[in-house]
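Help!! Second protein's tokens look totally different from the first
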Amino acid sequence: MVAAEPPRAATTETIVPANGVAAADELLTAGQWRLIWRRFLRHRLAVAAGIAVLLFYLVAAFVEFFAPYDPYVRETSHVSAPPMRLRVWDVAERRLHVRPFVYATTLRRDPVTLQRIYVRDTSRRLPLRLLVRGDEYRLLGLIPARVHLFGFGGDQRVALLGTDTQGRDQLSRIIYGTRISLTIGFVGVALSFGLGITLGAISGYFGGLADMVIQRIIEILIAIPSLPLWMALSAAIPFDWPQTRTFFLITVILSLTGWTGMARVVRGKLLSLRDEDFVLAARIDGARGARVMFRHLIPSFLSHIIASATLAIPGMILGETALSFLGVGLRAPAISWGVLLQEGQNIQTVALMPWLLLPGAFVVVAVLACNFLGDGLRDAADPYA
């Protein structure tokens, strides 16, 4: 009699798809930058902020094309005109239009107060058009052109964000202000981080007298309040200097006071890494101090530097805006967000022409976008996040 076989224990077999194995192998062999990129793409808010920052700098590079009008042209018939709303529903005809449009306006005077009143004319529609011919300009200061991204039909200028006290289109001036405000942030961070990385590396790698002198300078600069220091240095700029020279000096001023934080970060990193095996191997191989610092040590935490630079750009933008708003930075006829906000310093402007404060909204959006992008890059670069 044959004994019955004992029941076999149920076994489970995990089947891994071939593409899953390939993805796992690719992840194990991926380099540092690929891993950072994968982690960054998971941060949706940071990705959206990065797209917004790229759009801001795209507009800054080609402001002549994106601005509908010349920012210096004055329209005397539309001084201090309120924003003109973009519509798709025609009130007069009671029907929907596929192409957005605005209604033309007519200037009238209040017979009692003599105040300007802009009356909407529903019988005249000005449709939105793309790639239209308008005011002449030189793209990037080199290529003559007349094509703008958008415009409106008819002989009346359309001010989607209103006009200022001299009849200049506010939207065009805000777009032109993007170039200076964002360029100061980018160039200022590049200069300040270049100085901070160099001095921080010297301080952390060599130590001794160099470390003591650099750290005392950093402590003195940190002890001085930033805004009064900026104002004192900016006040020394002559009023009759050209815009380009003033722009350069404002950038240098912001850079000379913004390098201390990065210098301390680099110093701390080098103090912890200068005795590692790969550094000793480089020294034995005959590498000099500069090569060890900039070829081996600093690239080991370059991702952290990139994230910190992204977070530092908003500070530069706010610094330029504050200086120009207070009248000690860039001055008219230069166009920046801070210069545009100068017109909103009195209560009469805030009460009667609140649209002149719209450059402040663009400052807020740009600063938030840079901060969200920097947070995403910092989280992606942190292996323990």
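Here's the second one for comparison:
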Amino acid sequence: MDSVFDFLLNEIGIKYGDSVVVAVSGGPDSMAMLSIMAKIKEFIDVEVICAHVNHNVRKESISEKVFVENFCKNKNIVFESMVIEDYGDDNFHNEARSKRYNYFGKIVKKYNAKYLLTAHHGDDLIETILMRIVRGSTLRGYSGFSKVVKQKDYTIIRPLINVTKSDILKYNQENNIEFVQDASNQKDVYTRNRFRKYIVPEFKKEDKNVHNKFYKFSKTLLAYNDYIDLQVSKIIKRVYPQDTINIEEFKKEEYVIQMKIIYYILERIYQDDLMLITDRHAELLHSVIMSNKPSLQIHLPNNIKAVKSYNNLVLTLEETKTDSYEIEIINHVNLPNGMNIEVVNESKQTDNNVCRLSFEDIKFPLHVRNRIDGDKMHVKGMIGSKKIKDIFIDEKIDLKDRDVWPVVLDSNDEIVWLPGLKKSKFDKSNEEKYDIILKYY
């Protein structure tokens, strides 16, 4: 961990009188980071501000806030905290991240700080890169995250990116740094946890310092991405005037530039919701632009519609009242129909409002979306499949409710549950082995 001190003091150049905000959850990584800054504070008298966010989803959150606050009092560190009161319909992790960074930005401004430190480490970088390779992403997305990110008025720094989780735990043990543990970090229902527990350890068996290889990979991708961004910036006004793709001009460019233009547009439109977009969406847009058909339209997440008309393509918000949605099921999802789907630890219910699934039968993560034409489901107890449309008819579901009714799928696009109406062949009984329980209410 000596390299972390050297990086902050010599490379970044934190000096006397600087104000530094540290994002702290109370876990081992952020407490190690806060401890390092407490030592630097003693050494050169910088102002350290601890920013803590209570995500308001676990009963332990209140005691964790008190734990971090007490540490700060003992070290004469300024403590700031906030509670996320509610969430919308977005991916929980993505929305929580957006709210966190908005809050951190406010604290940075309040104290006129130069730096915001987060505790992302080398193992986090490996997990992020691998997850995005599996899911599909942009060139920048495949790079994971940067060690130093320049914002308009301050700099985000991730000083632990070159150390591993085991390095951090060893540091905490040697320096008697206490921390809290989030039990949800062990649950296999979360994609990142599965990568952390089962996949990353296999890479480390090949090379214990593999995190440094991933860091080099990340820097290389970022360098190439920055170069391509520079080229795109020179042509974007010609290809994308007045927020409209000029298809004739678009086709003049090389494929790699074409895809970068598409991602540039998607990043502008989706911003904090960019996690809803995968490489499949980008490739679909490219195929529409390159198609010989003069008029086409496709529907994207968050009710965005892409409309091609002769030489132009425009992405616009749907005017229809029926929302098109697709949300990854992480912990809790608020649905457009006013209902909820929640991952629960236990339930005695056996009706169609509860579904039990096994990792052995389906591919995680799970998603929930509205129905699309042609949807079919292998209904539990039936031979063959049945159209979702026919299930709605049999269950006498009103026409106005059908287009927003939730359909739960795995990552192979296999429908595994029609909440409140039908279970699929993948549903498990109480007596069978299952790994996750979903509740609809």
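Reply: Different proteins will give different token patterns, so don't panic. The chain has three domains: 2-215, 244-317, 326-440.
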